[in-house]
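sorry for the late reply, my laptop died twice this morning and i had to redo everyting from scratch. anyway the thing you sent over, i finally got around to it. pasting the sequence first so we're on the same page, its 200 residues, then the predicted structure underneath. double check i copied it right bc i was rushing
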Amino acid sequence: RIAAEWGDLLRFDISRRLIRSAGNTRFKYADRSKKRLLAVTIQISSPIIFSSYDDGAESLEVGGIVCRNRLDALQCIVEHELIHVVEGVLYGETSCSRPRFKDMAKRIFGHTTNCHKLVTPAVRAYRKFGVRPGQMVAFEWEGRRLVGLVNRVTRRATVLVENPRGARYSNGKRYFKFYVPPHMLTVIDDSDKRPAASDS
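ok and here's the structure:
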């Protein structure tokens, strides 16, 4: 029925850019009045799905439901996003933190929370390699050993290396930015030394 009535309105997409949210729903309207809906896209985070269940043994929760594998987790993520679709279409807005959404999710799918306990790329990097934001690390780059700060971790770690030609940050220092796979980093100082955001 949904396919017949919605046609190409409802779309699914696998996203490599979602690294904190397991899923996301986007509404596209013809104009700001939001009277004519053009498309609804449900995005699923491939980094989070594939960072979870690495050892094949853990059970993780999505929406308060215990998921024993990636397929279970994917189903619960899609269920959560479908509530966003229904609420958005019926009421013109949607928020999983509000009572109406929580009530719909519980009555339709049995979800008891609006969050997940899946493994984000940042958590996976810390579990497997001991790498997290704020650490001083060393790594090899084009035959040279560089030392820098881990500023962010997604599929790769963003490492800031001090250099007078780099972008200026609000701590007054300049840094070059490197994207390094976590397994290539050696932690040399575990305390949090992150600088403030870039001025540029």
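Helices lie at 2-6, 46-51, 70-91, 99-109, 121-129.
thats about all i looked at so far, will dig more tmrw
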